[in-house]
Amino acid sequence: MLRFDPRGEVNRALLIGVSAYDSTRPDDPHGVPGDLAAVAHNISLLEEALPRGGVFRKGEVVVSGSPYLDAFSESLRIAADEAEGLLLFYFAGHGAVPSAGDELWLQMRNARVVPGSRAVFPGADPFSSVLTVLATSRARHVVVVLDCCNAGNAAQVCEALADRRRFSVLMSVQANNRIDAGDDASATPFTARLVRLLEGGIDRQGADVGFQDLSEALTAHMSHHRTLRNERWEPQRWGDTDILLSSPSTATPPEPPAATPGVRPPPVHPLPSAKSPQEASKGAAEPRGEPEQPSGSAELEQPSPPSRRPPAQPAKAAERAGELPWWRRLFTRFRAWTLAVPSAAGRVLLWLRNKPRHTAVAAAVLMAAGIGGYLAFAGTGPDQSSCGPPLELRLLTDPDIESTVRKAADAYLTSAANTTPGGCRRSGITVYSAGTADAVTGFRGQSDPWQRPVSDDLDPQRDIGPQPDIWIPATSASVARAQPVEPPRTYLTLEPDGPFAYSPMVLSVPQNIAEASVSGRTGVSLAALRKKLTRQQKDADVRRTDPEYTDSALLATVGLYGPGAAGVSTAEGSVAQSGPPSLTGSDLLCTLPDDRAVDDRTAALVPEFLMVSGVGCDRTTRSRRMAEYPTDVPALDPTFVRVRWEDAERDKSARDEAVGRFRVWLTHGDGDAEKPGGGLDVFGDDGFRTVSGAHDFLTAPDTEAGTLAHPGRLPSPADADAMTTALQRYRNANGPGRVLFLLDSSGSMGDLWEGPGGAPGILKQSLGGLGDRDEYGIWAVASRGGSPSSVLLPFGRHRRADAEKTIDRKTAVHDVEADPYGALKAALDYMAGRGKDDERPQLIVYVTDDEDNNHLTGGKLGDLLTKAEDKGVPVVMAALDSGGCDRGKPDARVSEASGGRCLDTMSDLVAGLRDEVARTGTGDE
Fold first, then answer.
1. Sequence-separated (6 or more) residues with CB below 8 Å from residue 748
2. pTM of this prediction exceeds 0.85
3. What gap in Å lies between CA 544 and CA 583, rounded to an integer?
4. Residue 448 and residue 491 in contact, taking contact as beta carbons nearer than 8 Å
5. If you compute the radius of gyration of the chain from its CA atoms, what whole number of angstroms results?
6. Any residues with CB less than 8 A from the CB of 451 and at least 6 apart, and which?
7. Whether the Cβ atoms of residue 553 and residue 544 lie closer than 8 Å to each other
8. Between vectors from CA 466 to CA 463 and to CA 471, what angle results, nearest 5°?
9. Is 742 helix (H, G, I), strand (E, B) or coil?
10. Which residues are CB-contacts of 7 (< 8 A; sequence separation ≥ 6)?
11. Measured by CB atoms within 10 angstroms of the end CB, which terminus of the chain is less buried, N or C?
12. What distance in Å separates the CA atoms of residue 423 and residue 459, rounded to the nearest whole number?
């Protein structure tokens, strides 16, 4: 595998270490577990080790100790903006998982925990938000290192990344596991080993250290440790790209690349103060002239301003090493607060940085002269950009088109339309995506909690993202679906500008079974194309992505349920697959080649543009595909929508101007009829067509893409009512569901019982996927009185709140063994009997720690596997240990025989279980 070598590039390493917290238990019942003194050693050691590794120069390693959330966010944005080669983000501190289990939150100094059915973490940043900012960077590669509890929960968030090859993530421990920070007098175990490997090489011979070798060495070393759940400690790795992280034999890091005449390299900006907002609000006029405390002082556990030196380095040495002393940090803060004079402040800071021998005199002059002297003195330094911080716009889009929208936003940032006559950037754009169903619901009826979350169960800021200024759905019909309901509780307005591009839905068919003629690939319905496909190959499959996640998948569903379909149940069965569907069309096209036999016989319902731009997955053995064009599947027509929020008037004019400039550049271009330019060029390069007329390609794609330039009359965009109806029919396919939960209540479950991450808590969280019409029940699995189980919740329809109260009241651990063989056999018989007269979806869920799997061996296991295959009821085995789903284990074999899914703590068990239950039920989650 080729290794990316970032030496000589403009690299950045941002080291975040939160060792001190404002709110800790037991003093504050809503505080974090405690301070983490070891983390202070982590960042000190890493700051020394990284420059010695030859990849990062001294000024490229930036440290922020115990920052508040706002300061952290700004630090992250600056680092992402400056990096061009390698961007390394390191975090050590408390990592929390909400009770819903589907997200890792990085807790900053002002973090607190508000308990509820879905825990809320003020003062913390969800990892998805961190990734969103990192993804805006121009860096060629991004490496993330997380040393915190539950670090492995970050992996599932990474799956939604549009450009996966650009990210590598190293997580200190597997999902849903807490770890010991170790001795307060030394670094944490994970980071201590990390530093040792970076400095001495994998074999202690000084050889180069790459991401892959580093992660494997860390896993081997940490596997001898145990987590606080007494499981083997197993660091996790996400990403297949190898990157050089350290070359211990390199004595001196390479110098920055030679500057192009007239072009200044990007500066290393000082990071924002780590002080609390209350401290910062006191202003820059307060004297803060005391020198930094030396090593061992009480100051070390306070949140220090981000620095580029070890905590123990004295102030004079810090100045020589490039650290800003107190009086220069004072003017840095003044610059941030005094936006009216950014030009002057920038020149003074650069003058001071470049003339260290004059710093004392300069400081005295400036302090004596006051603001007037400051302004008069500002123009005397060497040339420096006078640009203030640009206005940041937030753009929400559909996951299928996120990659293209992000490319367009990146191109706009450096375009003439976004540049002032003085060469400054007018605005920045943060692009992020969310599931389409969630976004539509949020705009339509959740604008109030989106602005001010008031419930743990309903928090669009967490589930969708920040309030956007711009929304670009993949189809104009979603704008109609999302129009807010009538007042009094509507706090936003959607102002669509109209579609600006077009892409039809196609059946992407392997060339070996595609129609040979152009006429055979066009002019007929989806049902007719599928009949042709099965004539070509009897066992041909068709796959579709998740209709609740993207507009294109819902449009495909409209076609599946259209004329010629035998019914919703049959239509869904025709695209069924083991495990959850792919979230996006790009994911689907990139996972099919994992199995060559599947790739050769499986067609995919995806937008045409992805056949041009959605196949860059580093595959060398992909089956070539041809596009077939159904006439009854509506097309995509991305639409620009201005989102206005009530009471958001502070910078209304500037924001309107910034949005307007971007809209014109994106939707109308800056060229001519032959080459539209602007954002349309980007959309054209990614395979989109013109929005009107004959829908010609904006840019002619490569002939290898398998598309047709003129496939005849193409379908119109979607109708909002048709999409709404299809989504409702999809959610209720085959009627309400039935779920039987089996809860291991044997004595060994005692350590896995309490809290939202305990077995009853995990079960409660999965109830969100069940609606009022679904039927479900709960059995306790513990061998008491001759029966392998007892009823906790009778089978039937229940209100979720009532069911949760019953779980809280009746669940308990019993000092007996569990009999999974007897309980599962009885559950299969029970559910098969209930489903014999209909086709309603059914599911059995067994939550267990696997301690009593000695009952699943030999003849008993064989008998159970036979019954599971015969009854046809899927069984989800939810194993609360990290190896329960290993190949050949009883859990894996039972779930496979039944057509269900095996989940263990090596993956995000809670989110996976919730998804499986939601697929069976008709709930809102």
1. 849, 851, 852
2. no
3. 9
4. yes
5. 29
6. 467, 491, 645, 646, 647
7. yes
8. 95
9. strand
10. 54, 55, 244, 247, 250, 253, 254
11. N
12. 40
Report yes or no: 586 and 612 within 8 Å, Cβ to Cβ.
no
Say what the alpha-carbon torsion angle 331, 335, 341, 343 is, to the nearest 10 degrees: 90
Strands ordered across the beta sheet of 167-171:
61-65, 12-17, 86-92, 141-147, 167-171, 236-238
Looking only at the bridges linking them, the beta strands covering 492-499 and 427-433 are unpaired
Look at residues 353, 361, 318 and name the one whose alpha carbon lies nearest to residue 332.
353
Instruction: Yes or no: say if 818 and 744 are a contact pair by the CB < 8 Å rule.
Output: yes
**Strand-strand pairing, 470-472 and 639-645:** antiparallel
Strands 625-628 and 505-510, how do they pair?
A: antiparallel
Q: State the number of CA atoms in the 13 A half-sphere of 225 facing the CB.
A: 23
pLDDT at 275 over 80: no
d(CA 750, CA 762): 15
Structural contact between residues 184 and 197, judged by C-beta atoms closer than 8 angstroms: no
Instruction: Report pLDDT for 543.
Output: 93
- Cα–Cα distance for residue pair 283/274, rounded to 1 Å: 14
Average per-residue pLDDT in the chain? 80
pLDDT at 494 over 80: yes
Alpha carbon distance 481, 479 (integer Å): 5
- Distance of alpha carbon 151 from alpha carbon 148, whole angstroms: 6
Burial class (CB in 10 A: 0-12, 13-18, 19+), 205: exposed
Tens of pLDDT, residues 616-650 = 664 445 678 999 999 999 999 999 999 999 877 67
Looking at the DSSP bridge assignments, the partners of residue 571 are none
- Rounded Cα distance between 583 and 549, Å, is 6
Residue 502 sits at φ, ψ, to 5 deg, of -150, 140
Q: Which residue has the tokens 């047709």?
A: 708
| Token pair for 752 | 């896995």
Residue 292 contacts by C-beta under 8 Å, 6 or more apart in sequence? 299, 304, 314, 315, 318, 326
Identity of the highest mean pLDDT range in 185-194, 778-787, 914-923: 185-194
105-109, 241-245, 450-454, 900-904: least confidently modelled range? 450-454
Pairing of strands 124-126, 141-147: unpaired
Tallying the residues shown for the chain, one arrives at 925
Work out whether strand 391-397 and strand 236-238 pair parallel, antiparallel, or are unpaired: unpaired
| Cβ neighbours around 21 below 10 Å, total | 25
Alpha helices (runs of H) in 204-270, residue ranges in sequence order:
211-222
Nearby residues of 377 by Cβ (< 8 Å), 6 or more positions away: 344, 348, 365, 366, 369
C-alpha dihedral (155, 160, 162, 167), degrees to nearest 10 = -10
